[in-house]
Amino acid sequence: MNLTNYHSHTNYCDGHATIEEFIQTAIELNFTSYGISSHAPLPFSTRWNMEWDRVDDYLKECAEAKEKLGDQIEIYTGLEMDYLHEDYNPAMDKFQAIPLDYRIGSVHFLELDSGGYVDIDSGEELFKENVDKYFHHDYEEVIIRYFDAMRRMIALGGFDFLGHCDKISKNTSANAKGITQASFYKEIIRDYFETIAESGLMIEINTKAYDTTGMFFPNEEHFALIRELEIPVLVNSDSHRLHKINSGRKEGLKALVNARFDTVMELKNKEWTAVPIHSSYRI
Ligand SMILES: [Zn+2]
Ligand SMILES: [Zn+2]
C-alpha cells in the first residue's frame, strides 16, 4: 500500500514529538518503513536546526528505536541537509562522516552577495519582507538564485533525494501572482528537471502543504515532465507533527498515477527499490 515516509522532523529540530513517538504512530497506521530526518546542523543557530553537539544523541536515539521497534517496521536514520554555499552543503566531509541510512538535500537559505544568509522557506509575509529588503522586490531574481543553489547542490551531490525541489514556487506565487507561469520560469524548470535526470538523484513529492494549499512540491503540473525524464520519485509528508505523517500521501500517489507513474521508491532492506503503486490509488 506504499505506506512509507522518509521526511520527518522530531524534537531534535522543529518537530513536535520524539523519534519513538513518530515511529509508534507509523506502526499504528501500518506503515512498512519510516525514515527520521531532522534538520541537520548549520554553522549558525536557528529555531529549527539541530546543533552539532546533539548529533550523537540523535543517532543513539534512532538506534534505540530500531532496537526496540525494528521488528514491527523498517526504521531508517536520515538528516535533511542544507546547501548554503560551496563549502557548506550535503557533500562536505563533516556531513558525509555521519553514519546515516540516507540523506536529503534541501535549500532553505540564499547566500547574500554581501555575506550572510536569507531564509526563503518560512512564511509568505517574512518572505516578502526579505525579498523587499535584500533583493529590491525582485521575485524573478530570487527564483533564479534559488534554482542556481539547487543546481550547485545537485552538482556537488552527497545525498539521496532532493527535498521539496521547487518550494520557492509557494512563496513567490503567493506574493507575485502568476509568476510560475511566466516563460522565464518555465524555461528554468525544464532545464532544472533535465539536470536532475542527468544526476541520477531521486526527488520527493513533498505533501506537507497539500491539505492547506493544494500544492505538492514539485508542483503537480511538472509530474508529466518528471515522468518523461524518468526521474525516480518517492512520496513524503515532511511531517513535524504526529497527526501529519500520513497527510497528502494518498493524494500524492493518485496524482502520480494520473501522470502515468507506475512505481515509487521505497527503502527495502536498506536499498532504494522501485515499488509498484498499489492498485487502490488507481481509481
Ligand atoms: Zn525542508
Ligand atoms: Zn523538512
TrEMBL record:
Source species of the chain: Bacteroides coprosuis DSM 18011
Enzyme class, spelled out: hydrolase
Domain PHP residue range list: 6-207
The keyword Transferase is assigned to this record: no
Pathway(s) this gene product operates in, as recorded in its UniProt entry: Amino-acid biosynthesis; L-histidine biosynthesis; L-histidine from 5-phospho-alpha-D-ribose 1-diphosphate: step 8/9
Protein name: Histidinol-phosphatase
Biological processes annotated in GO: L-histidine biosynthetic process
Family statement: Belongs to the PHP hydrolase family. HisK subfamily.
SUPFAM superfamilies, A to Z: PHP domain-like
The reaction(s) this protein catalyses: L-histidinol phosphate + H2O = L-histidinol + phosphate
